[in-house]
Amino acid sequence: MTNRMTSRERVNAALNLQQPDRVPIDCGTIASSISTISYAGLAKLLGFPQELNRSDMNDPVNPDHDLTPSEEILNLLGVDTRSVSPDQPIDSQSLSKTQLDDYTYRDEWGVVWERPRNEVGPYIYRQGPFQKSGITIADIERYAWPDPLEPHRVGGLKEKAAKLHNETDYAIVISVGHSPIAPCQRLRGFGEFMEDLVLNPKLAEALLEKVTSVIVESTNAILKEAGPYVDVVNFSDDLGFQDRGYFRKEMFQKQIKPFMAKCVEAIHKHTDGKAVIHSDGSIFDLIPDLIDIGTDAINPVQTTAWNMSPDKLKSEFGKDLAFWGAIDTQQALPFGTSEDVRKDVRNKIDILGKGGGYVLTSCHTIRSEVPAENIKAMFETAQEYGRYDAL
Amino acid sequence: MDLNELKEYVVLGKSEEAEAFTLKALSEGMEASDIVNNGLIPGMDIVGDKFENREYYMPEMLVSAKAMKKAMALLKPLLTKSGSSSGLRAVCGTVAGDLHDIGVSLVGMMLEGAGFEVIYLGVDKSPSEFLESMKSNEAHVLCMSALLTTTIKNMGAVVQTAIDTGVRDSMKIYVGGAPVTEKFSDQIGADGYRPNAGSAIKMIKKDFGMN
């Protein structure tokens, strides 16, 4: 059967809560990448051994990082999205980081990131500039914050985005980085920031305020260039653990939501594209507030987290929200058989894809423990089973 | 002085009040172990219940644990030679390849609040590092955490190394973290898994005959 829609039409229909010709498929745009080691296995399986010689496959200080599959492989997998990004975003893994040694770097915000020594693994943040006792609001105000308005940050972005928009039919996705919670946690310390919300709410507010202003300025600058050409604008944060949200609903509404609202507002001001928020974890209780501030879709839809069953999500929120993600990276993809993966894909399509409103991808980066056969099974099944006229 | 007041300070996360109360109680001749057993431990029991019931989330948990730790810092030097009110010691850490530690730190704090002496080993630890710490600290409990699916296999390696070196029966091993399940815990031969710190401490206390 031939496709009746272009990739862009397909993704936009889904995000407009309409039913496209088939469930759109994403890879590599919103926390949905494949990492170096698992990509090597996939490339070999699909018959592209030359991919192993890519220059980004052998980075000695970052041996297991996210990457974008080749165009040939993306087409084979049926991927409807392509991403565009500024060269030097205000981001923890931007080019402006300072590598301190093979295992450690400092990012533009001044946060130190480390990767494990005992085994190859991803970098995570370990120490922030405000992660000590005695920090005051004055310290936050006089800190040397990264400047989001430096012209080089968006140099060439307009041309890149316009080219993709004009010369391809893919849905173009741009990330504007993080919304305020993650940077605050990195700058102040995960536990410390949580404690501030209870014990020192004015300090937490001052930090959120400052971080949000940097993010909003950065978003404005990015979308001034790329806004007319993108279909999806994503920002990332994490609002939940495996078994609960980070915050009680009341705390989220009072102390966090106003700042996330500013980030979403900045998106809608500068583009007709849809705002997709990434948040891992159990966030069911917070979703009405995310809808309220203008979120169009949530990602990654971690259905293995507590109270995140796809049935409940679809019935409760499906009329207001699209879903982007949902293919299980905690059990099925890494530890299941290929048939387990196929079952998961069919199940998610049946439930979340009913009537449209679903873009399918993995629930997080596909990492080294995922067998190549399972990755192949995921994308094959998504293409075969996702046709609405066959369901 | 009524130790229920200290219990309340812990439940409400009032660090300064907990510290001040503890100083006053000590100066009035109250035994450190009494303050721990009848003030701090009951307080953290309530906190654990509230966390399990999702009345408390992480911010409230951390603030209560902070109050407990502030009081405990004054009491620890005065407890028995074992450094705890129960005589039990636990090593807590994150497995090799993984640098996430907030969850296991919380478990450690809850164990302290239950009367254990806790050794926070850190992150990215190999089997030999875990077992060496268990040996040198003469610890009874090993709590391991992993957040990444790539690293949970290293939990199995620790259990296996304990078996191979003949020390498995001398300790209880518990596992936790987002990708961990009860099935996985059973598969690798650990002694237990729970999805949150509150219920984990209940399980551990039960295993050691503590009420």
Q: Report the CATH topology name of chain A.
A: TIM Barrel
CATH superfamily of the largest domain in chain B: Cobalamin-binding domain
- Most extensive chain interface and residues per partner: A-B, 36 and 32 residues
CATH class of chain A: Alpha Beta
CATH architecture of the largest domain in chain B: 3-Layer(aba) Sandwich
Shape of chain A: globular
Number of strands of chain B: 5
Number of domains of chain A: 1
Main β-sheet of chain A, in a few words?
7 strands, parallel
User: What Rg of chain B do the Cα atoms give?
Assistant: 17 Å
User: What is the CATH topology of the largest domain in chain B?
Assistant: Rossmann fold
Count of distinct structural domains of chain B: 2
Percentage of residues in helical conformation of chain A: 25-40%
- Gyration radius of chain A (Cα, Å) is 20 Å
Poorly predicted runs of chain B: none
Architecture of chain A in CATH?
Answer: Alpha-Beta Barrel
Number of helices of chain B: 9
The low-confidence runs of chain A, each spanning 5 or more residues with pLDDT under 50, are none
Strand order of the largest sheet of chain B: 2-1-3-4-5
What are the defining features of this structure?
A: alpha/beta, TIM Barrel, four-stranded antiparallel β-sheet, 40% helix, B: alpha/beta, Methyltransferase, Methionine Synthase (B12-binding Domains), Chain A, domain 1, Rossmann fold, 54% helix, globular
Q: Would you summarize the structure shown here?
A:
Chain A is built from 14 helices and 13 strands. Chain A has helices at residues 7-15, 36-46, 71-76, 137-142, 157-167, 181-188, 190-199, 201-226, 249-270, 287-292, 310-317, 332-335, 338-352, 372-385, and strands at residues 34-35, 66-67, 81-84, 98-101, 104-106, 112-114, 124-127, 171-178, 232-236, 274-278, 297-299, 322-327, 358-362. In chain A, α11 links the parallel β11 and β12.
